[in-house]
Amino acid sequence: MKRREFFKSSIGAGIAAGAALSMGGYRNLWASAPGNARYDMVAVMGGTPDAMFDLGIQELGGMNAFVSKGQKVLVKPNIGWDVVPELAANTNPLLVKRIIEHCFRAGAKEVYVFDHTCDNWINAYKNSGIERAAKSAGAKVVPANTENYYQEVLIPGGVKLKKAKVHEILLEADVFINVPILKDHNSTRMTACLKNTMGVVWDRGFWHANDLHQCIADYALFERKPELNVIDCYNVMVRNGPQGVSKEDVVQMKSQILTSDWVTGDTAAARMLGVDPQRIDYLPIANKMGLGNMNLDALNIKRIKM
Amino acid sequence: MSSSFLRKFRVVFSALVFVSFFFVFVDFKSLIPEKYVSYLLFLQFVPSAISYVNTWSLAATGFIIVIFLTLITGRTYCSFLCPLGIGQDINSRIGGKLKKKFRRFGFRKPHSVIRYSLLVLTLGSAVFYGIYLVTLLDPYSIFGRFMTFFAKPVVLVINNLFSGLLGKFDIYTLHHVEIKGFDLITYALPLIFALFVGLFSLTKGRLYCNMVCPVGTFLGLISKVSLFRIRIDEGSCKRCGRCAIACKSSCIDFLGQDIDVSRCVDCFNCITSCPENAISYSLVGTSRSEKGADQSKRKFIAGSVLFLAGITQSANSQEKNVPVPKKASTVREPRTYHVCPPGAGSLSDFMKNCTACSLCISACPNQVIIPAVRQFGIAGFMMPVMDYHKSFCTYNCIICTEVCPTNALKPLLLEAKKLTQIGKVNFIKDNCIVKTEKTACGACSEACPTKAVFMIPYEGNLLIPETNQEICIGCGHCEFACPVTPYKAIFVDGNPVHQAAKKPEVSEPEITTPVDFPF
Questions:
Q1: Which residues of chain A have a CB within 8 Å of the CB of B511?
Q2: Alpha carbon B43 to its chain's center
Q3: Taking 60 as the threshold, does the pLDDT of residue A138 lie above it?
Q4: pLDDT tens by residue, B394-446
Q5: Nearest-by-CA chain A residue for B29
Q6: How far away is chain A from the Cα of B305, in angstroms, using its nearest Cα?
Q7: pLDDT digits over B38-58, tens only?
Q8: CA B419 to CA B498: how far, in whole Å?
Q9: Taking a C-beta distance cutoff of 8 angstroms, is the pair B75, B264 a contact?
Q10: How high is the pLDDT of residue A244?
């Protein structure tokens, strides 16, 4: 590195660090508090997606609690639709970017981002703003548009879904961070953590044709579960989901839910959306199969308002 | 000008044109902006002429420029601008490498009966019945089909090979692209032409252009009065015959010191071949007397023009040959029309103007457009049709309407396209999983960009699709997403005349911004 470049980059880093420290005075923003999380779930409200994540992840012990040095991380947002970020059909790009930055800070060797989109994938990656945001943070944005990126895995214990073809990156990654956006859904009534897994498998049609709710729950049996779920509830599509028609479908909730238990996360998310979690069939099914906790009252939840 | 510069210029220029056309057709990543595509296509004779008849717009005057160009320079179009012509030159070179005999041409008599009959037939049938012969014989469209059916798949295979290799090294700059083949029968036409044109050009130079191609024949007629021509200086000519052997058009009668300008494509190979520098490309002067004009030919031409002018008058009252709607007779497929791409306006307009060059098929990022087999009847063979079992029309896309060189697909603004109803959604409840299996699905409604397909309460906690045709634009995403086989539970029936869809209604949602966590 040339001397001048070194100065430039150090100044940049200095400014960034200074800015980070001056915001809200959270001194341990990048601190590496080890493992044992104090909370089952952290819910944050009132900030921007990136600032809420900074707070939330800190309460869960920092990104170092999930990512170790040299690991490969999959950050899996929802990039299903070819729409602009304001329409909230895809995960907030600012949040995706921030999570990737935290991963690299924690020493991640490589961070991957992909989604098996519903709309044309090139347009969806581009117009969601996620491709650019992820790349600017240093992540690899990986295609998921053809079958050859997928490998078959078995799901022992699955009632309807006994095998699935999953994206190779999911199998390669050491850490899986699930980053759905909370939305209304026309037939399952809600999409968040569990339903976001439809974007890591190839044959979604099979799920639709073979008891969608049971398949969603069955897939949650698969051993490669997310280490962390971050539910983007900043802008929430409350109807006409999962694609939305206009801005009128979106309500600004400025919230975020972080948890390692995706059933818990989805239960809280359903409440945000004003839907009875019991009416979202795949949740009680997954709960009965022992895949996560729906009883929020019995859990240690940290609620933060910014 | 008698230097060999002309030939070099022709080779470099035509190579550039050819490579540009090649890339336009194999550009599966939509890297080339539509603007440049239309610049390139502007001068293509048949697409431009059809587009002009359609729109009377300045943007479609390319063919008039070509006519003027021919009046001045002769058939330079055939050597400099026609991708099929340039392709044949390349093939002819390959032929020469295989067998020297293939590049030793020599003078041959013109196949005038065949070429003029084909020209009159093509023009006449276009005016009377439809542009089927034009579709069949337009050199640009033939070239387009070669690229779409043969070149693009090869490029995709190479891309997929490399993307797979790079993927092993964790590099994802290239991505795998699914190669979706077409119905086998649609390969027949391009295959026959590939063999036909390929064999001709491999062994006989520009014989195809001078015997079959109606554009070549038409421009040949005009070039009979062109200002610049290939000319032999009788004084310096030693009658060695090298020019005649080098002539791909076999149009130099070196013994008679005559060049058949109607067949000369101005490749300038003869100029380079002449050891005496006796051949030049120059302005027709008074120094050389014209050979006695062929009166019978002139009469023939004049007659043809009059004939065509006459039938043009009666053309507009002709009934258009368009398939009529079939009565729904079977339960399984109550489809009355197949869907033609956005911008077509109506099926009859579409049939009138599309030459099946297949550029839209190549350019569609979703690969939803395929060549028709019998979807539009026999007359619509090879025409672009939407196949919603293979893919769907992307809501935020107007590429096909932007690239179409004949204006068969008229340009649409994105906002207008989003309200252009090319077909209407139809729900077949008895096929639907929610009814037959009593399990949730909603794939169709999920996919619908306008919520013309939405869900209403059904038995128990289930929701079942319901449709609103008024706001449906016929994109086919619902049909594509429907997991039922072999017959879908939801399908788009084509609009023979495209209509305007209503805008989806919007209202304020009941849920408001929360002030506290609801858990």
A1: 238, 251, 273-274
A2: 14
A3: yes
A4: 999 999 999 999 999 999 999 999 999 999 999 999 889 999 989 999 999 99
A5: A122
A6: 50
A7: 899 999 999 999 988 877 877
A8: 10
A9: yes
A10: 93
Closest CA to B147 of B340, B343, B360, B341: B360
A190, β-bridge pairs: A184
Of A131-135, B117-121, B308-312, the poorest mean pLDDT is in: B308-312
Q: Does a cis peptide bond (omega within 30 degrees of 0) precede residue A49?
A: no
- Which residues in A lie closer than 8 A to residue B176 (C-beta atoms)? 143, 145-146, 148-149
Q: Name the residue among B150, B158, B162 with its Cα closest to residue B195.
A: B150
Residue A262 scores a pLDDT above 70: yes
A201 and A147 Cβ atoms separated by less than 8 Å? no
What kind of fold does domain A31-305 have according to CATH?
A: Rossmann fold (3.40.50)
Separation in Å, CA of B518 to nearest CA in chain A: 6
Whats the size of chain A, residue-wise?
Answer: 306
- Interchain contact A131–B (C-beta under 8 A): no
Q: Are B463 and A187 within 8 A, CB to CB? A: yes
Distances (CA, A) of B466 to A204, B427, B453, B506: 22, 7, 6, 18
| CB of B359 closer than 8 Å to CB of B405 | yes
Residue from the list B454, B507, B517 with its beta carbon closest to the beta carbon of A45: B517
| Rounded Cα–Cα distance for residues B117 and B122 (Å) | 8
Interface confidence, given as ipTM, is 0.86
| Residue B420: strand, helix, or coil | strand
Measure the CA–CA gap between B349 and B409, rounded to whole angstroms: 9
Question: In the structure, what pLDDT confidence band is assigned to residue A36 with cuts at 50, 70 and 90?
Answer: low
Cα within 13 Å of Cα(B244), Cβ side:
18
Q: How far apart are alpha carbons B264 and B79 in whole angstroms?
A: 10
Domain locations in chain A? Answer: 1-30, 31-305
CB A104 within 8 A of CB A137: yes
Q: Are B376 and B346 in contact (CB under 8 A)?
A: no
**pLDDT value at position B202?**
94
**Using DSSP, how many helices (H) and how many strands (E) does chain B show?**
23, 10
Interface subset of A 179-238, CB within 8 angstroms of B: 185-188, 204-206, 208-214, 238
Q: Is the pLDDT of residue B326 over 50?
A: no
Binary contact (A272, B172; C-beta < 8 A): no
Q: Would the CB atoms of B440 and A246 count as touching at under 8 Å?
A: no
Q: What residues in A contact B366, CB-CB < 8 Å?
A: 120
Cα distance between residue B229 and residue B218, in whole Å: 17
Q: Coil, helix or strand for B323?
A: coil
Mean pLDDT of chain B: 88
Could you give all domains of chain B from N- to C-terminal order, each with its CATH number? 5-283 (no CATH), 347-500 (3.30.70.20)
Contact A233, A270 (CB under 8 A): no
Q: A268 burial class (0-12, 13-18, 19+ CB within 10 angstroms)? A: buried
Coil, strand or helix at A177: strand
